[in-house]
Amino acid sequence: MSEIEQRFARIYEDTRKDLYSYIIRSMREEHTAQDILQDVYLNFFRIFQQKSPPDDRQCRMYLFRIARNLMINHSRRFYIRQVDLVEGYDTGPGAAGSAEPAPGLEDSVVDRLEAEEQEKILGELLGELEEEHRTALILRFQLDMRLEDIARVLQCSVSTASRTLQKAQQAVVRAGERRGLKPA
Fold first, then answer.
1. pLDDT of residue 55
2. DSSP code per residue over 152-165
3. Would you give the distance in Å from CA 107 to the centre of its chain?
4. Are the CB atoms for 51 and 59 separated by under 8 Å?
5. Is residue 129 within 8 Å of residue 168, measured between CB atoms?
6. Helices 3-27 and 30-47 meet at what angle, rounded to 10?
7. Mean pLDDT throughout 113-138?
8. What confidence score (pLDDT) does residue 137 get?
9. Which pLDDT does position 35 carry in this prediction?
10. Under a CB-based contact definition with an 8 Å cutoff, are residues 29 and 20 in contact?
11. Buried-state track 149-174, b at ≥16 Cβ within 10 A, e below 16
12. How far apart are alpha carbons 28 and 119 in whole angstroms?
C-alpha cells in the first residue's frame, strides 16, 4: 500500500464514526446515512487523488463540509420527488377547496428549509471566527464532544479548551449582533 493510500485509510478510520453519527442525526434514516457517508469519502478521495490531502484537522473539516453539502442536496432531491406533479389532482386532504389541512410533508420541508437557512447563517458567522474558535464550536456542538476530547484535538488543557469555547460563543453572538441577529 502506498503512503497516500495508508494516509487515506488512517483518515477514514479516524473520522468514520464521528462523521456517520453526524449524518445519521441529521438524516434520521440509516440507509440514506450510509449512502451519504460512502459518497463523502468517494468525493474526498476524488478531490485529493492527484495531490496530498491537507493536515488531519483540515481533512476532517473537508469531510464534514462535504457531508453537509450532500445532505442538503439529498433533501432538495427528496422534496422534488415528493411534490405531486399530476395536473388536476385536487382530491384528498389539503387540496384546493378541501376543508382538511395538508399532511405534514409540507411542514417538514419548510422546517428543513428554515433549518438549512439557519445553518447557512451560522456557517457564515463561523466563517468570521478564528480557526481555533471555529473548530472548538464544531467539535462541541456538531460532534457533541466532551471538553477532554476537544482539549486533545486542540492540543491544550481542559481549562484552555473551556475558555476557548466560551470566547468562541461570545464571538459568534457578537458577529450575529453586528448582522442584526439576536441570540435565542
1. 82
2. HHHTS-HHHHHHHH
3. 21
4. no
5. yes
6. 150
7. 82
8. 86
9. 92
10. no
11. ebbebbebeeeebbebbeebbebbee
12. 17
Residue type, 61: M
Q: Which three cell numbers stand for residue 106?
A: 409540507
Q: What is the dihedral of CA 28, 29, 33, 35, to 10 degrees?
A: -160
* pTM for the whole structure: 0.45
The grid cell for 151 is: 482539549
Residues with Cβ within 8 Å of residue 143, at least 6 apart in sequence: 18, 21, 22
- Please give the Cα distance from 170 to 172 (Å, whole number): 5
Higher pLDDT, 92 or 150: 150
Q: Residue 88 — left, alpha, or beta (φ > 0 → left; ψ -120 to 50 → alpha)?
A: left
Residue 14 DSSP code:
H
Grid coordinates in use for 119? 445553518
**The cell 420527488 sits on which residue?**
81
Which residue stretches of 28-157 are H helix? 30-47, 56-82, 105-127, 131-137, 147-154
pLDDT at 19 over 90: yes
Handedness of CA 114, 120, 121, 123 (dihedral sign): positive
